[in-house]
Structure formats: structure tokens, C-alpha cells
Amino acid sequence: MDAEIDIQNYLPHRAPLLMVDLILNIDANFVETTFLIKEDNVFVDKDTFIEAGLIENTAQTCSSIVGKKYFFNENGTENDNVNVIGFISAIKNLQIYLLPKVGDTIKTRANLVTKFDGGDYTLCTMSCQSSLGEQMLSECEINLFIQKSIPVLE
Predict the structure, then answer these.
(1) Residue ranges of domains in the chain
(2) pTM listed for this prediction
(3) Which CATH class is domain 2-148?
């Protein structure tokens, strides 16, 4: 799919912890996103987007591939009242080359390496790269655990 898509259609994250703006490309094995770094971002320190922000941006980019299975059914219709939880279970070979600044728009790409689908949960490994124009910002391999959560009845 090649169209700009609001990431909130694929993730449970909301401001101020949403670290991706748009999905540029997505399919079953690849995703590419963009993110404009704003001055009020929680991961900005002295006009610089810190390492934790790059890692969270990467994790959110990666989880959009897996997350779409919970937010949309097979015919592409959006599922209502879906709650998911997810976390990074491992980060391997993390290299950070450059930290972007406020006003920069970064692009993050992730390729699915492995995936185990357990029905209501998914484990996956993704190979990821973030860049600013032609300049590589970071690269790593990330493992994610994403699970459909059961709503608590009150």
C-alpha cells in the first residue's frame, strides 16, 4: 500500500507519546514512516531528539505492521473497541550515529525478519533504520511482543 496513512489507525499510542505521524508505505513485511520533531516533544532536550525518542519512534514504526491485524479485519474494515498492549522485549545491535533536531522530519523503515502469531498475541523481530535525508540516524534489530488485551468490566 503506497499512501499516507495516519499512524493512529494502527497503534494505540496517543499524544504526547505518539512518535510517528504518517505511514508512507506498509505491507505484510515492510513499513516506512515519517515523524516531525516538535519543540514540545517529551523526548526533546535542548533542541535535540534524544536516543530514547529514536528508539520509541522505531518501536512504533515496527509495531504498525503487527498492530494492523488487531485494528482491521481481513476485509479491511476497522475493528471497534480494540485494546492492545505491546512492549519491546529486546533491542540488538543498536547503533546511533546522529541525533536529529527540532524541526527535522525523520524517516524510519522496518523490515519483518521473523514473526510468530499466537492468535491473541504476536512476537516479531524487525530490522530497522532511521534517517534524516540521506544521513543515517540509527539502526537496530528490535523484538516486539504485542497482545490483544481483554477489557476490564466495571
Answers:
(1) 2-148
(2) 0.81
(3) alpha beta
